[in-house]
Amino acid sequence: MSRVKAGLKIVLLVLGAAMLGWVYGYPATAVIITLTAIIFFWLYQIDKVQSWLSDPERNLPETYGIWSDLLALIYFHQRKSAAVQAQLQSTIEYMQSSLAVIRDGVVMVDEYGVIIWFNRSVEPLLGLRYSEDTGQRLTNLVRDPAFNNYFLAGDYSEPLQFEAAGKRELVFLRVEITHFGEGDRVLFIRDISDSVRMEQMRSDFVANVSHELRTPLTVISGYLGTMKANCEDLPQRYRKPLEQMGEQAHRMESLVRDLLWLSKIESDQNARLDETVDIRGLLQELRDELGEAYPQATLVLELSSEQSITGSYHQLYSAVSNLVINAIKYSGENSTVTIAWFEERGKNRLSVTDTGIGIDAIHLPRLTERFYRVDESRNSTTGGTGLGLAIVKHVAAAHDARLLVESRVGEGSAFTLVFSSGG
Ligand code: ADP
User: Fold this and answer.
1) What's the pTM?
2) How many CB atoms lie within 10 A of CB 418?
């Protein structure tokens, strides 16, 4: 509207000047003088607006007509964006002050790994100095190889737990990294020493109890064996209980053996397992041994990979034999179990496939928990300890591998160890 008004004003002015000029006999000169005056007036107004824009802190200049409207509009938008900016700034400050007081360490780094900001809790955890270290590359300041490898590898799907180097007492840290913005990352670091110590105590306790149970169990089993061997001297009514006591003592021995083995694998988890394990040879040996022990099943080997694995022969043998024995146990008579060693999508894979009873999908997430059983009523018939898959899971973790389980009720199951290395 103001544009129409301004246009109308100019037209009226020019018309007035033309009429006045016509009265005095110089209409064209009058129009030119009027237009020149208008142009100068506009230039003057533009100059005022421009000098104010270059320093908006100054008071608003006095302008007229369309220039006054334009200035008001600019002023309005400027105030609005200043308010939005102030709000954003206060949100950032609020976020930073809340992150600054939490007990977990928080570090923000840019796409090049240069520290943008970190809170005070990071100082004792990673040894950074608040006043000096912003703007430095994080991996230049944290010298821990486990941390640096994890940070640089860029795969943050699983958090990292590691023992912090250079501390007076044992300190365990857990690091989670998340991407945000364009390549920036935020790291959350927590001291988990207490829970690691608790876990260590629990594991030591189980190992000690199992160890202490071994001697009395051996004595009980020994006497039971002697009594069984001479059972014709015993009254008939003691024979069945004696047999059951023998079976239960044998079960307890298996349980104690598996618990001790699990504790050993757990405590070995951080140790370097550096044997070169020829998986083909291992599987052939396992097939011969289990084929003899379980003649009811046919064990088929499919060895398409030549790759070896760095780790522990003993642990891998025990994990695969648990998988194969399960496959035989949870399949009917005359079953076929296929053991395959192959490479797929750049990873070495070891799979054990059966055509047995299968497992309902709801059980899969809990299957590797100690003593978890799909069907409690079967545990006495199958003779398992309930620790087999927990052992497999720990061996997998110690070898940087994942255990994948695919199964269909009534059709069978496939347990696959996927190693992070490939050929
Ligand atoms: P268990 O000593 O009872 O076999 P595991 O830890 O080896 O203990 O296995 C846990 C449970 O997973 C088993 O009780 C069984 O219900 C189920 N399971 C394991 N392997 C198989 C398989 N190949 N087919 C069907 N069920 C299986």
Assistant:
1) 0.68
2) 17
Compute the chain's Rg from CA coordinates.
40
CA 346 to chain centroid, in Å, comes to 21
Token pair for residue 77?
Answer: 């938008």
Backbone angles phi, psi at 211, to 5 degrees: -65, -45
Contact 408, 358 (CB under 8 A): yes
Distance in angstroms (rounded) separating the CA atoms of residues 353 and 259: 26
Tokens of 78: 């400027």
Q: At residue 24, does pLDDT exceed 70?
A: yes
Dist CA 161 CA 179 (whole Å): 19
Mention every residue, 6+ apart, whose C-beta is less than 8 A from residue 87: none
The residues lining ligand 1, judged by C-beta closer than 6 Å to any ligand atom, are 322, 326-327, 330, 354, 356-357, 359, 367, 372-375, 379, 382, 384-390, 413
User: From CA 339, how far away is CA 401, in angstroms rounded?
Assistant: 17
- 9 — pLDDT class (breaks 50, 70, 90): confident
Q: What is the DSSP letter of 144?
A: -
Considering only CA atoms, which of 262, 248, 264, 210 is closest in space to residue 368?
262
Question: What CA–CA distance (Å, rounded) separates 273 from 396?
Answer: 12
Task: Pull the structure tokens for residue 268.
Answer: 């070995």
* C-alpha span between 107 and 139 (Å, rounded): 12
H runs (alpha helix) in 60-192: 65-101, 122-126, 138-141, 145-153
Q: From CA 158, how far away is CA 160, in angstroms rounded?
A: 7
Residue nearest ligand 1's atom 16 by CA: 374
Ranges of H-type helices in 102-192? 122-126, 138-141, 145-153
What per-residue confidence (pLDDT) applies to 287? 96
